[in-house]
Amino acid sequence: MAQPRHAAAQWWRSAVIYQVYVRSFADGDGDGTGDLAGVRARLPYFAELGVDALWFTPWYVSPMKDGGYDVADYRAIDPAFGTLAEAEKLIAEAAELGIRTLVDIVPNHVSDQHPWFRAALAAGPGSPERELFHFRPGRGPHGELPPNDWPSQFAGSTEPVWTRLPDGDWYLHLFTPEQPDLNWAHPVVRQEHEDILRFWFERGVAGVRIDSAALLAKDPALPDLAGAPDPHPFVDRDELHDIYRSWRTVADDHDGVFVGEVWLPDPERFARYLRPDELQTAFNFAFLSCPWDAERLRASIDTTLAEHAPVGAPATWVLCNHDVTRTVTRYGRSDTGFDFATKAFGTPTDLALGTRRARAAALLSLALPGAVYVYQGEELGLPEADIPRARIEDPMHFRSGGTDPGRDGCRVPLPWEAGAPYAGFGSREGPWLPLPEDWASYAVDRQAQDPGSMLSLYRTAITIRPVFGGGPLTWLTAPDGVLAFARADGGVLCVVNLAETPADLPAHTQLLLASGPLDPEGRLPQDTAVWLRA
Ligand code: GLC
Q: Which end of the chain is more exposed for a tag (fewer CB within 10 A), N or C?
């Protein structure tokens, strides 16, 4: 077996982790849906990109009512993707290339097709089977009103989080009705998830992404939100830390790492998940959501580093994922930040501008101390796709009453071959989501030949990124609108110009990499980044 790219224990402190959305990555059998055969055939792609690990969004048996985040069997692969034996082969083959695997565990809820929920439905009100979930009688004279006033966790959704059954009971689902929430106060729920973690660690995975990690614990009284009860009845409750401490002992038996999906505005509360006996890492959504603005980015970087330091956890740097508007599109708009609440159809976008900024942002995030996540297609500079309304599948769209475009635009299959039907994704049948007509120009085979492409930039940047060394960040004096920093031990600088005026480069012996051309005077133009040897 090849040496992992980061042989050291704690490889995750500085790793580049590539997010694979299996359904849209590569189609091995030509049916228009991505699969494990497709991923296995493309393993050399990851090696060439230089990533340390792959995070697979849920690949388990699922009715796909929420892109696989509705899991019916956590120990089996969805037949549309392949088999467990194939997943095991994939994990082993990736390891041979020095690439680790992370799986995605969804603990807050299960699919309504999960055996537990089916049993709970069959067993009826008051049964022990229903205690694994949150079943309650309704309010109102006939129980016709939902048990409380909690809002949906799909931003923009006007739909209730309770569904009533013909037998009169209501059940809680913070997301869709096909995703009933589990009762984490129940010991069987805890036991089962620790077994699932062991199951995947025993299959060779190096880590686990935890879905909706701050939502699992609920106030057992399920009080209304109106009147602002403190602590919050279902977000960021203290009981969660006990759950994750227990998970950590399971992970430690297997040298496993966690990355939590923790969306919390308060940096201090966020950092509590990263205490030494809890999760090693969590996604940095503050950085992802930050507008393309030098002062705000610098503040976001400083807050990130300051919040992680006391708990000794490494930062993560994330620009996009399968839930948010793709980076080149976001950065090409007048509002360059990300907020679920402001997503809309038809937002004007300058893709050339967004792409220039995304290239600079790639060099910025890959130069910062910590781990970096790359979402499939980010390395190709794919924009958010416009999905014809009739083809939209994402429940976020439907649960917003059709006002939110949903997340399908960032989940479109990857274009592999410019000259092939459907750009090489699916052959017998077209891809499950349509590729925009001009996407051949983004195809991997075309970009691989072009030294100026986004793919070439990512390949080079990830490969030479170790020149920065492992040291902390030091800001350098720079004009307004320019971010310039060094990493203590490397003697390598990163400079990003977000200002209109071109910036003089600091003294350097070598230009290692640039996100775009310098101006004729050798200065750094707006929305351009460079890596320099001091
Ligand atoms: C997470 C996932 C998202 C999913 C939700 C419910 O936020 O990233 O895709 O819809 O959880 O599981």
A: N
